[in-house]
Amino acid sequence: MDLKKHAVEWNPADIIGHIGGAQAGTSVFRNIDARILLPAAFVVILALSAVNRWYVAGAVFVVVFFITMYTAPSRKSYLKLLVYPLLIAMFICIVQAYSSAYGSIVVLTVIWPIYAQGIASGWLYANRVLASVSILLLLVESKSELELIEALRWFKVPIEIRNLMSLMFRYVSVLSQEFTTMFHAQQARLGFSAKLSWVKKLQNMGIIAGMLVIRSYDRAFRVEKSMMARGYSQNVDICRTFNRFARKDYLAAVFALAVIASILMVGVMM
To answer: Structure pTM?
Structure first.
């Protein structure tokens, strides 16, 4: 057997591990208050969902992509994260191309007719998805999970939601590591050998997923018991005095408003 050849070169837990283990890097927005960045990103994404010009969302994606590529600690990890949104965008384009809900001009027939208006709408939705995901990745790159959760506290988000988010951020990487361990164990037992069919590989993946669900419930039960033993109460909150907004924060807010206004004017009103 040639040990240099691997049956599987990818790890399905990569996307989870990168999100769960993301840390604030050296982004140009690193020194901007999270109370400015969080609502700005949310409103920009809402504005992108309303644009009807694909080039507006595409321009936002290109600009944010190069900013993140320049500031990201690991460009390889960032590009790996973009693979999944790209696949979703391609799927949207293909599905929308076969939709006749937007018009009846047939440009090509591949098993079923492909409509010109469906291609246009799919391209628009794909650019919206990529632009929105790139903004979220830039936000995660700029601020840590703790800073974002503290910003939600300043916006009076209920403590139950914030506690749930903090636990999700903490244990999504743990589940990723657990999945990776089981995946490699299955792979070592030739569970994803090149000689196996895709049906069998999917069955083996389903076995791993089922075991992961069972272990997740078991871990959740043990974490609950340990937290209760240490006096945890849902009324316990992070005690922190927020700093006053600096001049750079106000400038960032004005810049965000200008970007939002530009997106709405060019992408919606024109």
So the answer is: 0.77
110 bridge partner residues: 112
The pLDDT tens digits for 125-144 are 999 999 999 999 999 888 88
Between CA 89 and CA 184 the distance in angstroms is 29
Per-residue pLDDT tens digits for 45-86: 999 999 999 999 999 999 999 988 888 777 888 888 888 899
